[in-house]
Amino acid sequence: MTVPESVAVAARSMADRGLSWLHANRAHGAFPQGGTETLAEPDSVYKPLSETALAASVILRDGVAGPGQLVAAQSLLDFCWDQFRQGDMLYERQLQHVLMTDPLETYATFARCGYRHADLHRLLTHLTGLRSVEGIEHVPNRKLAVANAARVVGLDRRDDWAALTRDTWLGALPEPWAINWITGYAVTHTVFHLTDWGSRPQGLSPQITEYLRTWLPVWIDIWREVAQWDLVGELLIVGASLDDPYCNPEDWQMLADLQQEDGFVPRDGDPVDEDPALRFADHQHTVVVTAVAGSVALARAAGDRAVGDRAGAR
After folding, report:
1. What residues have CB less than 8 Å from 200, skipping those under 6 apart?
2. What whole-number distance in Å separates Cα of residue 207 and Cα of residue 210?
3. What angle do CA 278, 282, 287 make, to 5 degrees?
4. Distance (Å, rounded) from C-alpha 214 to C-alpha 216?
5. What pLDDT is recorded for position 200?
6. Contact between 152 and 138 (Cβ < 8 Å)
7. Nearest in space to 256 (alpha carbons), one of 271, 247, 273
8. Local confidence band at 270 (pLDDT 50, 70, 90 cut-offs)
9. What pLDDT sits at residue 306?
């Protein structure tokens, strides 16, 4: 199955408008004056800033946006890199907290697009293989996040991807009716890390791919019904990341119609606070998800067209 043309049109709108909103509102995601690597509340700025950087990096990696949007994505990624003091903050955080993995995961977002911090890279290389670091007790899908970040950065690790996958909830091919909000997000992130945000569909085993193709339509319907748009968007990314993408035009058009003209997408069906700072804090993640979903689907559609063009030329 190729990505339907109607999905590609919706995905273009989702990616372009989502990026525009993130770029226009980037100041709301900046560190407060005097912010340091100690980060007493990392989820307040650090994590959202890393997510904004992720959206920009995926759009730049995929390269399917228009020239103006690619310029905006580069500007947004540069802004995020500057917020992390060109990597110095990540280096200092890793140096002071050797068992934390978020500096590596955040750095990988930038490394994906060619950014480098020599001291951080040397430190991460040194930490790789230490028993204390290898033994960090993460939940299984978080272990995949670290393994994928190390792969993107280019660290010499010997991760057993099959074993890491088997340990996840999705890897057990669980009874699909047992899914809940927490396991739903675990499923999506397992796919994100195995496929590096849709660029490596071969990272999913045939068994998992078949399981997802069977149950994604059901799960998307469930979270559409309860208006959990953030999780719906993540499930759309999962569908677009399969080797044979699952992209139901109705689902994609629904999310594209939900997106406002400026690119804003609500997290759920609850009322939206119109205070700009709260609006950003509450819904920035959903806009990130929407932009990433659009870019991944567009990249898959472009790949389908390229394969078709090559076949026609033979």
Report:
1. 194
2. 5
3. 120
4. 6
5. 97
6. no
7. 247
8. very high
9. 43
Model-level pTM? Answer: 0.94
Phi-psi region of 196 (alpha: psi -120 to 50; beta: other; left: phi over 0): left
Whether residue 120 has pLDDT greater than 80:
yes
Condensed to tens digits (0 to 9), the pLDDT of residues 159-200 reads 999 999 999 999 999 999 999 999 999 999 999 999 999 999
CB atoms within 10 A of CB 121: 17
Angle 184-190-192 from CA coordinates, rounded to 5°: 105
Asked if residue 266 lies in contact with residue 23, where contact means CB atoms within 8 angstroms, the answer is: no
Q: In this predicted structure, what is the pLDDT of residue 1?
A: 61
Angstrom distance (rounded) from CA 56 to CA 59: 5
Contact 296, 55 (CB under 8 A): no
pLDDT tens profile 36-59: 555 556 667 999 999 999 999 999
